[in-house]
Amino acid sequence: MGLGLLSGWGLRDDVGMRAVFLWVLIGFGVASVGKAQGLRNGPMPTAAEAMGSLVGLSEVQRAAFEADPTLFERIRKPEPGDWLAAHAEPGQTVEEYRKVLAQVKPRPAQKSLAILPLGTFGDKAPDLETLRSYCAAFFAMETRVLPGVVLDKVPAKSRVNRNTQNRQLLTTDILKWLPGMKPADCYALIAVTMEDLYPDEAWNFVFGQAMLQGGVGVFSFARYDPAFYGEAAAEGDGELMLRRSGKVLTHEMGHMFGMRHCVFYECLMNGSNHLGETDSRPMHLCPVCLRKLQLAAGFGVLSRDMGLLKFYEKESFKAEADWMRRRVMKLAGVE
């Protein structure tokens, strides 16, 4: 089975345990995937060019996709060590996304997203029901948590990491197995685990990997816990881990909807070269990426944003709730 293009976060073994967490693309058949994703030859488009025309949209949609500077920041200049300082990415315009939309748009029978727990989840793990609720609000699609699978039933090679002495599971084995676990009505399936992961013997670890074509991925939450790095428990650790876990789930599912890394605004779909850069990224999509997701999922933008506001308020994500409240007030004023 060909795995296509995989995306993940991790470190090669020769990098050791330095506090640098690389976003990597491990390519199998990269050329064909690149063509399918509509890569261009030519200069980088501006943010306005990336969005394209909004003619013909409703007033609410035009307001939702306009570049309001009070809500959306243009992407900052990368600092040494940041993703865009090391990766010359072409970005992806809405028009380029339209060219692959037929390949990534959920079919009528694919009405849901799914989260598959692997192994046990203790007190320090992010709450799976909360993550389910967040994914459901973010994509405006039914999302469910599938019955968990004990690790003995996961057909994946394992090893003991020589630095941490923790068990790790081989992601490529899991990715070969996951398509058979995906329900027929499911568009994308993400397996989540508290076990550490690795993609290859030459790698020290990887946070996770996803198939850009095929609708499956696997991610570990183990290294999102500050305790993994020997840090003492602190107030707010649970919220930090939930934020990180929610970001990686929605970012990777965004890739499963055919969205490439964003290079236009500060956005959930920005690439990230280290955990500090990841923490600094917003939980929301920029106008360009939101337009792409709306084209694929077909949701009403105001109802989706109201669902996210409800989630942020419930979980006491103050900054996100304040931002989304301003956003909802703007769109509601147009309707």
Notes on the protein architecture:
This protein has 335 residues and is of the alpha/beta class. It has one domain: Collagenase (Catalytic Domain). The protein is built from twelve helices and ten strands. The strands form two sheets. Strands 2-1-9-10-7-3-4 form a seven-stranded mixed β-sheet, with helices on both faces. The chain has a three-stranded mixed β-sheet with strand order 5-6-8. β5 and β6 form a beta hairpin. α6 crosses α8, α6 packs antiparallel against α11 and α11 runs antiparallel to α12. The chain starts with a strand and ends with a helix.
Indicate the structural class: alpha/beta
Instruction: List the uncertain runs.
Output: 1-6, 14-38
Name the average pLDDT: 86
Within CATH, the superfamily carries the name Collagenase (Catalytic Domain)
**Inertia-based shape:** globular
Class in CATH? Alpha Beta
| Number of strand elements | 10
Give the count of structural domains. Answer: 1
Helix content range of the residues, please?
A: 25-40%
By DSSP (H or I, 4+ residues per run), the number of helices equals 12
* Gyration radius, rounded: 19 Å
| SSE string, helices as H and strands as E | EEHHHHHEHEEEHEEEEHHHHH
CATH architecture: 3-Layer(aba) Sandwich
Proportion of strand residues: 15-25%
Head-to-tail CA distance between termini: 49 Å
Kindly report the CATH topology. Collagenase (Catalytic Domain)
Largest β-sheet summary: 7 strands, mixed
List the main descriptive attributes of the protein structure presented here:
alpha/beta; Collagenase (Catalytic Domain); 7-stranded mixed β-sheet; 3-stranded mixed β-sheet; 36% helix
